[in-house]
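Re: the 97-residue chain
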Amino acid sequence: MEFVLSSVEELAEIFKALSDPTRLKIFQLLLDKKRQCVNAITKHLDVSQSAVSQHLRVLKQAGFVNNERNGYHIHYSINEDVFNKFKELTHDIFAHE
């Protein structure tokens, strides 16, 4: 598969978003738990609420995370479309024969 520039740029943005250990932990938690609010993520990772919010903002800007308001809480989840595209693109790169 030959990559178009936009796909490579999108992939680079996702790698950049996942390059921080805390963001990677948040990503793994959302993969495992499916949906979490900031308070739940804060308790699970023992990180401040403001730090979690900032990390979620980066993940959301990369398109990797969705949010949904439920009353006073905002729940975050993995954007499955972006995640599947990420898996496809990384497979194409690393499965190069």
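The two ends are 11 Å apart (CA to CA).
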